[in-house]
């Protein structure tokens, strides 16, 4: 993740921020946002919010594959975050809300204490709305929802409450990329910025390292195309702050476990050349990674440089690159 900051004075950004209206406000005014929140809530009965469609009766208090506690919402932390991509961070930080639990459950998860062990505190939908408004009051440039998939019903409910109280920040959907198209359809007109991972190209790798998620490459590719259809490429306000669009993250894994160069080829063939792509180098063995020899080390500079060079040769021009890893 890039720690650089925009240097533009916040006062210069204010006119653009005031003129911008996030997508969800129109749905709030018509009552459609509340209706969609209710529809997603109903889908927790025989839960099918994520591609596992595990069928857990979350409305009855059962835990799904993600291990989220029924209908209860668990948040690990929230606040202004300065470790995200520069167009999200600006001067005042990205207003991140880290949700606990996860449906993908990667063997090498860097935040496994949150995503798998479920560390965090229970919050109500009303309290989540309050956190969103608190981040806006702190001057954050957006509301950044980290690992949101299994809490999408709670999020839309909170968003409706917060919009009624004056929330006007762009909404960032910070996801592992493994999403159902039906759910993304319900987020159309709600999310301003999609930020999916594209972790693997090979189904066998996805199944091996992410708890049987063999459909990950296929569904993630389809999901990213739908995300781009909804928001288009990155659009910026004053100071280079992103207000709408798509950011794709790809974490380079050792021994080409993720199929990095093929993923770059897919992006170049299916999306505009100016699609924002963050090629990430910060992999280190966490959680159960040491059980797999091919994942038991950090990447080399040569592995990272090869992916960057491939992306450049393919004509991708909006790359977020960690220069210190280049040869």
UniProtKB/TrEMBL annotation:
GO terms for molecular function: [formate-C-acetyltransferase]-activating enzyme activity; lyase activity. Its EC number is 1.97.1.4. Keywords: Iron, Iron-sulfur, Lyase, Metal-binding, Oxidoreductase, Pyruvate, S-adenosyl-L-methionine. It is an enzyme of class 1 (oxidoreductase). Its cofactor is [4Fe-4S] cluster. SUPFAM superfamilies: Radical SAM enzymes. This is Pyruvate formate lyase activating enzyme. It comes from Desulfomicrobium macestii.
